[in-house]
Amino acid sequence: MKVLTTTCVIAGGGPAGMMAGFLLARAGVDVIVLEKHKDFLRDFRGDTIHPSTLELMHELGLLEKFLARKHTEVREISVEIGKEAFTVGDFTHLPTHSKFMALMPQWDFLDFLLSEAEHFPNFRLMMQAEATDLLAQSGRIAGVVCETPDEIYQINAGLTIGADGRHSTVRAKSNLKVREFGAPFDVLWMRLPFQQGDPTEPVARFLGGDFFIMLYRGDYWQCAMVIPKGAFAVLKAEGITGFRAKLRTVAGFARDRVEAIESFDDVKVLDVRVDRLEQWARRGLLCIGDAAHAMSPVGGVGINLAIQDAVATANILGPIMRNRAPKLSDLQKIQRRREWPTKVIQWFQVQVQNRILVPNFRARQTPKPPLVIRMANQFPFLRRIPARFIGVGVRPEHISKEIEPAQK
Q1: How far lies 198's CA from each of 218, 222, 308, in Å?
Q2: pLDDT at 289 over 60
Q3: Distance between CA 259 and CA 251 in Å, rounded?
């Protein structure tokens, strides 16, 4: 077993882990980030970069450079309910420098963070490196055991951060208690071809009890179909022909392209869950992002919340970790800072799933447009409210002056 020593080891190279690693390294903290895959090229993830994240890029002096990467800008949110279309959100009035949401493949976003983090010699990313266990010493988490194709590592660290997603190994090994809120649906991700003349704005469509989302990805549509929890087995039993027929009814202008789904190998299942750790930390260990609070896809705010967790982590711990390992009381400040926004958003997600999605799954009918949607469509100034909630979120974080970069 090979032994490494660092100030902070982060399990998980997703948005929370990479942002936390970048900002801590920028603040002068020695960081190792562990990513279990060989690259960032994994499909079927959320690709929305919210205005609040773009504002962070502005505060870091990286916005222009970031937006030079290929992306699509979304200024309004619309939804189709049956044969009616409603505009329900307007980002153009947000108090941010970028008054839009950017659609960018997540691997490009992560690659951008990596390219900036690599300017700092105290940052290290290990690919194909999976944290499989925690190291404990005198009741304190003292690092991780990490496995790669060629070596097993013992990584000693003053702080271990679990940012390894909703199926977090770090969380499972930590014995921290999880509170489950339940999610009565799953999401099927798939691709449909893009054709000249298609719109490029996101499409959200309610029809006959089905909910279908389309995100423009340059040369194809990344599509999500919301289904009742566990229903994928039933769909598979009906065969690919039956699935295509169901898809054809909700795909709108793309209905003639469903033959692109050649088999169920082209369909990926997201096991939706909504949960939250009762305590996000123990001595030497902190969980953030989905490892601390698995979010529903409702509102598409999970990535945004994970990034906000990472910024709060760097703001609070960066100055401390230049001098010493953080105490449990230091780690608990992150939970106190981020738990309330998490609770608010999870409450909203549970209300939507229980009051809108589940009743229409059962009734197999197109829902009536809720009053709030009809009001926002009729009175444009009301569209600023959902845009603010989704685009900026609850208690947005900003880059603290206390974590100004160390010398590159």
Answers
A1: 11, 13, 33
A2: yes
A3: 12
Domain membership of residue 85 (yes or no) is no
Whole-number mean pLDDT of the chain? Answer: 92
CATH number of the domain enclosing 305? 3.50.50.60
Residue-wise over 359-386: b if at least 16 C-beta within 10 A, else e? ebbeeeebbebeeebeebbeeeebbbeb
For 13-22, 65-74, 159-168, 397-406, which range has the lowest pLDDT when averaged over its residues?
A: 397-406
Q: What is the mean pLDDT of residues 174-192?
A: 92
* pLDDT over threshold 90, residue 203: no
User: Do 263 and 278 share a domain, yes or no?
Assistant: no
Residues 6+ apart with CB under 8 A from 141: 134, 135, 160, 174, 282, 283, 284, 285
Domain ranges, residue 254: 185-270
Task: Decide which of 211 and 3 is more confident.
Answer: 3
What is the per-residue pLDDT for 352? 87
Which whole number is the average pLDDT over 49-54?
Answer: 95
* 250 and 263 both lie in a single domain: yes
- Residues 234 and 361 sit within 8 Å (Cβ to Cβ): no
How many domains in the chain? 2
Instruction: Looking at the structure, tell me whether residues 283 and 395 fall in a common domain.
Output: yes
- Contact yes or no for 113/18 (Cβ under 8 A): yes
User: Is 356 found in the same domain as 371?
Assistant: yes
Q: Which of 218, 240, 270 marks a domain boundary?
A: 270
Whether 353 and 247 map to the same domain: the answer is no
Helices 302-321 & 51-59 angle (0-180, nearest 10): 30
Residue at 291: amino acid letter:
A
Q: Return d(Cα 128, Cα 155) in angstroms, integer.
A: 15
Last residue in a domain, options 270, 304, 335: 270
Q: pLDDT digit string (tens) for 119-146?
A: 999 999 999 999 999 999 999 999 999 9
Same-domain pairing of 285 and 223 = no
Pairing of strands 285-287, 203-207: unpaired
Same domain membership, residue 262 and residue 235: yes
111 and 139, same domain (yes or no) = yes
Within a domain: residue 344? yes
**pLDDT confidence bin for 90, thresholds 50/70/90:** very high
140: phi then psi, degrees, rounded to nearest 5: -115, 140
In contact, 286 and 114? CB cutoff 8 Å: no
- Distance between CA 322 and CA 318 in Å, rounded? 7
